[in-house]
What we know:
This protein is mainly alpha-helical. 75% of the residues lie in helices and 0% in strands. The chain is built from nine helices and no strands. Helix 1 packs antiparallel against helix 2. The longest helix has 28 residues, at 2-29.
Amino acid sequence: DKLCTNSRNSKTLNSSFLVIITFMFIGFAIPHPHRYGLPFGADIAFCAAAFMKLGQLLKRNVSLILKQDKLVLTIVLIGLIFLFAYTYRYSVYSESVKHILMANAMYGNPFYFLGNAMIGSSIIVVFAVLLDKFNISKSCLQKIGRNTLGIFLIHKPIIQLFEKVCNQDLWESNGTIGIFVLSITVLMISMLIIKIINKLLPSLLSR
């Protein structure tokens, strides 16, 4: 019975990876019209579906991560961060890649894009597990998590407003630090707007 179960699990895992690779290949291969994209964002949707499937696999196997002790997880987290920083720097600052934006099908090198995305997702999973193991308060992250849809809908107009009002070179010239400061500022403004919306029209954001 155990052998049959392992065989079934192995087949399920293999078929899931096949689905992920197929969806990702279709997403990369479909031409993306520059201005408007495809109906329903079909090309981007395939890539997004691949990441969703990958997330389902991670969720099923997260128990293996939970069994590790704090020291092992801390070392893994530091290693993942350094690996992400190295591949991100190479892929973003390479002469062949000017900008990476999945929402507009701008992936740069697809192998680096996929690698960075998987490393970044692993960092978030390990970081979340460490928060639990060290009994660190997660109220701030939980608040952001509950308002993810609102942040997603609101943040883009705020960034565009910053681009019009402020000098774009102000944060771009400061590299990662400038982008981090901009991200935190946009997040805080988004949360403030969401709070106002939830007070006046709670049903607008499914409250």
